[in-house]
Every structure is written in structure tokens, then in C-alpha cells.
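User: Sequence in, structure out. Go.
Assistant: Echoing your sequence, followed by the C-alpha cells.
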Amino acid sequence: MPFLFVSCILLLAAAVSFATDRRRLRNGVFLVSGAVIGWLGLLLVSGNNSNNSVPVLITVALGLLLILSVPILAVFLVLNGLIMLRREGRRLANLLSLLAGLAVVAVPLVLAALQTAVPALRALTSAAALLTGYVGFVFVSYLVYSLIYSHLPPRRHPEYVVVLGSGLAGSSVPPLLAARLDAAARMYRGKHGGSIRALIPSGGQGADELLAEGTAMARYLQEQGVPANRIIVEDRAATTMENLHFSRALMERPDAPVTVVTSSYHVFRAAMFTRRAGLRAHVTGARTAGYFIPSAFLREFVAILATYRWINLGFCAVLTAIPLAAMALPLLPS
């Protein structure tokens, strides 16, 4: 019963936090924590009731499925990493899925080998296992809630649509950016397009670009049939936060409802940025090439870990201290 009680509290916290602001990562943390603890509570209840073994059987089946999925996931990530290197070039960001695939197999094997072969390192390997579990839990929370958020409808019809830039190919709009602009144009032509005062293509000029992204994006939107008088160009931004801040400054009402268009893998982190920028915004994602998503999603996760680095470092410090303290206790004088 204590597990079920804690689960109810966490799920209630998730509901309240969601109602307050959809754009917080803690919504996913509360939700996943509540679901896992609630399931553990059901297992304990069913263990005391011999007439109801369904939760136990489901858990065993899920455990077996998880074990079998690990090598499949590893192979998938490695192959995806090789595709990324071939199509996108040899940059560190394109290595993420390859490195993650290797880590999925290597980390558990190395920790298990060290735990058995070098007993003196058991405290350190236990700490490493706890840290790995923590990162895995945060990733699952992020993944689950990102998928939930990306399928949420906007709470209100937008007055402005901000399209985030993603780089030009010289002066041309590449496919990744074109997908975002196409999504914005469809929104403008859609049944709720009458509420949209303006589309705001946002992006400054990079060192390897012949003109500002916002200017090239505006031209593309006009080619898709959006009138020039319904486009406000933002041509100074170099980061996502600048995209949002500078676009907000161009609106007649800074508190107007906004829809921000980005790529599918970037939706939730962009939503977090809109909250920090003070926008009443909903973020929607444009279609992205399938091979690009795993690596891009991992890159987004790393960026979110960095955003909450002090919270994460605090939890990691506590998790590291637990096995070290357990090792030190027997050495203390009685």
C-alpha cells in the first residue's frame, strides 16, 4: 500500500504540473516515477494474493522483452550511427547514436566484469551502475513526455507562427528547413489560418550563408503562396533563445498566443525555451528524415542534461555517495 500511495501522489503531482504548464520536464519525471512505483505496488499486492498473478506474469514478460530488446537496440543504434556518418559527415554530433549503441552493450558487461573480478572496486562499480540507471531513467522520462507533448493539440488558436531557422545551403533553403516552412504554410492555409496575424521566419546570417535565414525563409513562404504583408522577417537571431526573444519583440502583443514550428526531434526542448522566453506558446514539429531522428534526439537529451546540470550533478553526487558510504561504514570504529 505505501507504494500505491506514493504512486498516487506522484501521478497527482504530474497532473497538477501539467495543468499549470505543459512545457516542464518534471511532468514526465512525475509521470514515469508514479507509473513505475504504482506497478511495483501492484506486484506486491498480487504477490500476497495467490489468486491474482497477472501483474507478475506481465512483469516477467516485459522483463524478457527488455532483455531481448537490448541487443536489437544496440545493433539499430550502431547501424544508424554509420548511416549518419556516411550522410551527414564525421562530426561529434553525428557519432552519438553509434556511441550510444556501443555503450548499451559495453557498459553493463564492463561493470559486471569489474564487479566480479575486482571486489575492491565494488563500491565504484555500484556507483557507476546507479549513475547509469539515473541517466536511463531521465532519458525514459524525457522520451515518454516528449512523445506525449508532440501529440498535444494547442490550447488556443495562434495569432503568430514563429518558424525557427536551422541553417541555409548558401542562399537556398535545405530540406530540413523547408519542412518547417511547409508546415507553417499549411497552418496559414488551414481552417484556423484566419486567426494568424503573421508568420515570423526567424534566423540570422551565419558565416557560411549568403544572406540571413529569415530573409531566405520569407522568400520561400511567398513561393508557397503566403502574402508578403503577412510575413514579418526576424533576421538577427543566432540561437533558439534569440529566435524567440527577437520574434516576441516583433509582435504587437507580446502575450499573444503563438505556435512555434521546428523539427520533430526539437519540439520539447523548444517548448522549454518558449517558457523561459515568456511566450504563450505551443510548439509543433515538422517531419524529419527517419535516419536523422535517433542521433538528433540523443543530442537534444544531452543538451537537456546540460540545461539542468546542477540538479543532475546533485543527484549524481548523492548516488555516488551511497555505495561509498556503505563501504566506509564497516571501517568506522565501533
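User: And one key feature?
Assistant: The chain has a mean pLDDT of 85.
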